[in-house]
Design goal:
The structure is a homodimer. The radius of gyration of chain A is 23 Å and the shape is globular. By secondary structure, the first copy, chain A, is mainly α. In chain A, a hairpin with a 2-residue loop joins strand 2 and strand 3.
């Protein structure tokens, strides 16, 4: 007889297969699909979302879980216990949502996201707001349902907490308020100091045009240096860069600016971090919840480890400076020198665009979004209030105004279009985790700089693989971080990293 | 209360959505996917095949069909009646197959097809034969089950008939033997005469290299001339060219040879014919079986209408000769002249490769495959017999030997890799239908030549749209052909067309 645990395992393998189809068709929708195919694609993906939801919440799953959990631990390995825990979490998260709501969210999200691609270009806030209102209403509905379900289980969560929990299990608004509250006390001052300090620096921006094909070849070579497995993934173009696909076939994207190769290059390094996490998940657990990435914050810690701890490190830029020169036409002089690249990639500027922001101002963009989306979900503000509040907060945190410029203001991100409220904090949590991981890695392996300068990254990847990638969701987040670094999330490492990189003029 | 017919309609709309996911992921597998992603993709597509099969054969479907059919005709429009007929046919075709067989076929087909992509390059017959045997065994199993089911319904079909019926409803081995038997009486003689006659012609092959990007730009311009809707489709590269995707988003592919642009150009014209049929299916019926293409033979009639009746017509080549010259570098002299292009594109040669074959020798390739696959499914020969028989028939029909050259012999086609036995006859049926449609079109509109020379194709497309594309599966094949041309399939039109093009030296 098949055990209840085995039944669950088989069932979630089927769900893994359905997710594969959704991930590839979603990637295609953002990279390959002609505009006119969108209605049919949205309908097909919505159908699959309903089917997946039905399967995930089937009554059998609850029965099997009861039986497997009552059978007790002696019959299951630790990893199987962890898998059972993750299955339980997914089941509980899904079963509280009515099928009609899931379908409505998928349709509204696809519609809003697809229209946004054109609306953003046209600075069409009122068109976008119409779609976004529907998405927000459905997300509020979801939050209310989740809060009630948590209350039934005896835990008290706010509306926004209940959405945050989808991306960052264990994280709460209270904890975020502490983390981000601390950040707000010292970040604006540090930004001022660094900008002041850098004002006397000379930075030489490389002169384009840099043909897209050459930028792509450069990106592919850097991905190779960073260990991307091209037998299980590829690089393409999309409006908003992302890492999609499945662990067996990871699809990362970028967008190219012919006048500026530096953004797409660092974007590719960032997505390669996401990709290596996916490609490094344990092969034997791939079809199971315990084999999935731990959380969005931990995912972002890997992309930011690649981008911030490796990619923008002066020693790494020294290593890739000749690679850049070999791919791109134009001057071989000061612009492509490693010293100039290091200044470029640590240049702090107050700007509109989150994805173009430097390491230091980026958290300010996140805090802005966190405050707005939390208020939106809690019903404290409405969609119509967003542009005004966005502008106020941009002025307060970054000293720039986005009045009337929706394209570079509240319409710049893809996240809200499909209702991913609660996702934004992951970026700054990821930056904090990445700094903490990098400190622990250097404690274990010694200073990164000489390795980076030589491009000898195998030990670095082994450390990440052993401590993060191969661990997947076998541990909960705090336990994972503690096992890797000796302590739970400690934002002090992030501050130390920033101070060392941006204020220690002796480096 | 929802009527049984409406229940069926809703149910098949869901199946339409699932098919969408399968079609896009299948396209991706052939065009975009890295090699290492194949196992996961095959498993995901197999899961979807099982799910689709379960849904298609659900007991409810039989109940709804009984109720809708007993309700009688007064409550349904003619189109709804036709839809009911097509739903019934799909249900009956699917329900006889056990789920385990469907899953085994999907897995074996994916495995065989994917490995074939490398094995063909390596001329690895024994590796291929191992996979193919499994595919053949599963197809024989399918045929036996289908024959028994037909017998239960009182109709006597052979094993091969039962597979043929999947692609060409209403067609039988008996009918094919008559059509192909007639062809065999005059085709070899005509090939001899034409080759003899052309031996005194001078043909000037264009000298490459023709960069792929330039060939692609040429292809896109010709697709535009032929009315391809790029808002609902795109052009990419695959090992074996095909038309995939969904009517709302048609994905055609080609392969480029840098030394010879003529093959990919005509290949693109061919696939554009398939694409316009799909893009021209009636929008209001797209999600229903009655809104699908009529049959593989009718599908091929549209690609061959585009390729043979339009694309290789001297007047069309006259129209596109300057377009070719504007895209491709090199001589502007005799090679790109319309007269030379017309000689190139009607050049008859005895060759190995079906997809590279000219219009006149192509049916010989099809008859060879028809005879082999029929014998294979009837159990008269085994997979191990194929290379020897292939060589014998190639020598007999086309005077060339493929001994030891599996790559250009029995391993050249994709069709058998996933068990598409019964598909090959569609090509020559399509050529016959295309000739008959073109004769009827000229009866209605007058001689094509002046329109083609001017590139004024709107009336031609309107005729095809009115008579074929918009009709989808609302009529059965014979009725469709009769409505469009005044008679059922009459292979005389094909012979007339070939005699006029290849033997009428006055043209």
């Amino acid at each position: 007889m098949t055990s209840p645990y085995q039944q669950l395992s088989n069932h979630f393998q089927q769900l893994h297969h359905l997710h594969h189809l959704s991930a590839i068709c979603g990637w295609d929708q953002a990279t390959m699909m002609p505009h006119g195919g969108n209605d049919a694609r949205s309908a097909a993906l919505a159908e699959l979302a309903v089917l997946t939801h039905q399967k995930l919440t089937a009554a059998q799953v609850g029965d099997w879980l009861d039986q497997a959990e009552h059978a007790g631990s002696p019959t299951l390995t630790d990893a199987q216990q962890a898998n059972l825990r993750e299955i339980h979490r997914r089941y509980q998260q899904a079963r509280v949502l009515p099928e009609k709501l899931v379908q409505a969210q998928s349709l509204a999200g696809s519609r809003c996201e697809h229209a946004w691609r054109e609306q953003r270009k046209n600075n069409d806030w009122s068109g976008f707001a119409t779609n976004l209102k529907e998405v927000v209403n459905l997300s509020r509905e979801e939050a209310a349902i989740r809060v009630a379900a948590h209350a039934d289980n005896g835990s008290v969560l706010g509306n926004y907490d209940s959405l945050l929990d989808r991306y960052e299990p264990g994280m709460t608004t209270t904890r975020l308020d502490t983390l981000f509250g601390d950040l707000k006390t010292w970040l604006p001052g540090m930004i001022d100091r660094v900008i002041d300090q850098q004002s006397s620096q000379t930075v030489c921006p490389p002169q384009g045009p840099f043909p897209i094909e050459k930028q792509k070849a450069l990106g592919l070579e850097i991905m190779t240096l960073l260990g991307f497995d091209f037998n299980h993934g590829r690089l393409d173009i999309s409006v908003h860069p992302f890492c999609g696909g499945v662990p067996e076939d990871v699809r990362i994207t970028t967008r190219y600016d012919e006048q500026d190769f530096t953004q797409s290059l660092m974007g590719i390094i960032h997505e390669t971090g996401h990709a290596r996490y996916e490609q490094g998940l344990p092969a034997t657990w791939l079809s199971q919840p315990a084999g999935e990435a731990r959380s969005m914050g931990i995912h972002e810690s890997q992309s930011l480890f690649f981008e911030m701890q490796l990619g923008r490190h002066p020693a790494f830029l020294q290593r890739i400076s000749p690679v850049i020169q070999s791919h791109l036409p134009g001057e071989t002089g000061p612009a492509f020198s490693s010293a100039n690249l290091a200044r470029l990639y640590t240049r702090v500027q107050r700007g509109f665009i989150r994805v173009d922001a430097d390491e230091l101002t980026y958290p300010a963009h996140i805090i802005l979004r966190y405050e707005l989306e939390r208020a939106l979900i809690e019903g404290e503000i409405e969609v119509g209030d967003i542009p005004e509040l966005w502008d106020q907060k941009m002025q307060r945190y970054l000293g720039v105004s986005t009045r009337g410029n929706y394209r570079d203001g509240c319409m710049q991100d893809i996240h809200w279009t499909d209702g991913s409220f609660g996702y934004f904090p992951s970026y700054t949590l990821g930056a904090m985790y990445a700094a903490q991981f990098c400190a622990a890695l250097q404690r274990d392996l010694g200073d990164l700089a000489p390795r980076l300068a030589r491009g000898e990254l195998d030990d670095v990847f082994s450390w990440l693989s052993n401590n993060i990638w191969s661990q997947a969701s076998l541990l909960e987040t705090d336990a994972l971080v503690k096992q890797a670094t000796g302590e739970a999330l400690n934002p002090g490492w992030f501050r130390t990293h920033l101070e060392k990189r941006y204020l220690d003029t002796s480096v």
